[in-house]
Amino acid sequence: MKTTALVTPVLIAGCIIVMLSFAVRAAFGIFQIPVAEEFGWLRAEFSMAIAIQNLFWGIGQPIFGAIAEKVTDRKAITLGGLVYSLGLVLSSYAVTPGAMQAYGILIGFGIAGTGFGVILAVVGRAASDEHRSMALAIATAAGSVGQVIGAPLAEYLLGLMSWQHVFIIFAAIIIGSLIFLPMMKTERVASRSELEESIGEVLIKAFKDPSYTLIFLGFFSCGYQLGFITAHFPAFVTELCGPILPGGALYSIGITTTSRLGALAISLIGLANIVGTLAAGYLGKHYSKKYLLAGIYMARTVVAALFITLPITPLSVILFSVAMGSLWLATVPLTSGLVAHIYGLRYMGTLFGLVFFSHQLGSFLGVWLGGKMYDIYGTYTAVWWFGVGVGLFSAIVHLPIKERALPLNFAKRATSALR
Fold first, then answer.
1. C-alpha to C-alpha distance for 93 and 163, rounded to whole angstroms
2. What is the C-alpha R_g of the chain?
3. Which pLDDT score, from 0 to 100, does residue 198 have?
4. What is the DSSP letter of 28?
5. CB-side neighbour CA atoms (13 Å) of 189
6. What angle (nearest 5°) sits at the alpha carbon of residue 287, between those of residues 286 and 288?
7. Alpha carbon 356 to its chain's center
8. By CB neighbour count within 10 A (0-12 exposed, 13-18 middle, 19+ buried), where does 259 fall?
9. Which helix (H) or strand (E) covers residue 160, if one does?
């Protein structure tokens, strides 16, 4: 239930569930080589399974948001955890690319049910107006913690057992996270009949409002940039970065090759992201969310453009990783908070879920287009500059957003106009 404290049982449970969900999700790249070597698959086969996960994560987000608002949040999260675990268990028995990709659909839906859309909606409703922005940031940062620990955990477990057994353990971890669900109890502010009657009005209110369309379009570039960098930046660094010279700081800590530097870059992005996300939550409490979002996207645009324009060296890779990491998921608490502020908390899960679908469309395109363009041109340069362009687009489209709460009668007037 809602309290005036920042740290609540709902926030704690939400952070644990989203952290474990994202830890498993972030580890899939580690299985690329073991799976390909066992079955002789092309890298593109398992990459497509990951891309499908991202796409169906986006498709499932508004669906699970609607389920949560219909039958309670905890039942929706339970369903998501069960589907997630089922997808992992079935994937452990996959012996063909088609099977692995098909089970990726279940995993994607499972991530949707245990990820940002549902969890942030519960956290947002449980938080006071004063602490909502920071609570959303903390829950988002918990996902970043999962991204930091997931890959090393998978790497360690692969040294002890087969990838199939690791998938089974990950399924058990997802099921185990559901023991925290009793802590995620919030007040129901309307009866079921009232919810059924008003959700259509709220959706019409959002779809009629140009600001919602701008938020939807603006979140696309976030997904594109994150998807592309996560999937392709290690290879980008391996191929294009200047050599790591003996005697330097990186060499002395065991980063002796550009491939290791590429892996380090992803970890640095995750670590910097924790700080950046919390900072965004704090700033979102005091300043306009739309201007903060425009500033983040503009900063991403500048950072990416400078990195690709200047010589790519070990130092520039580290500086880029820290800078981009600090901007990485900083958009999530601000975007979800903006949706809650304008359209209210009751249907935040559904409305933010629809916006998040745009994010995952971008993520799917970033992963797929990165590989496709590289196969055609032998370089990532074109797809990188496309990411710079969409980042600038997002910075611009956030500026006209009207950051004020819409009254419910806005939806009723829109409904009457359609009759």
1. 10
2. 21
3. 62
4. G
5. 11
6. 140
7. 8
8. middle
9. none
Residue ranges for the chain with pLDDT beneath 50: 189-197, 410-419
Amino acid at 250: L
Q: Token match 């389920």: residue?
A: 67
CA dist., res. 113 & res. 135, Å (int): 19
Q: Which residue has the tokens 């109890």?
A: 185
How far is CA 28 from each of CA 22, 63, 160, 169, rounded to the nearest angstrom? 10, 24, 17, 13
pLDDT the model gives residue 408: 53
375-389 core/surface letters (b: 16 or more CB in 10 A; e: else): eeeeebeebbebbbe
What pLDDT, on a 0 to 100 scale, did the predictor assign at position 345?
Answer: 74
| CA distances for 291 relative to 49, 99, 334, 335, angstroms | 36, 44, 10, 11
* C-beta of residue 319 within 8 angstroms of C-beta of residue 264: no
Round to whole Å and give the CA distance between 305 and 115.
Answer: 31
Distance CA 229, CA 53 (A): 16
pTM (predicted TM-score): 0.78
DSSP track, 287-344: S-HHHHHHHHHHHHHHHHHHHHHS---HHHHHHHHHHHHHTSSTHHHHHHHHHHHHH-
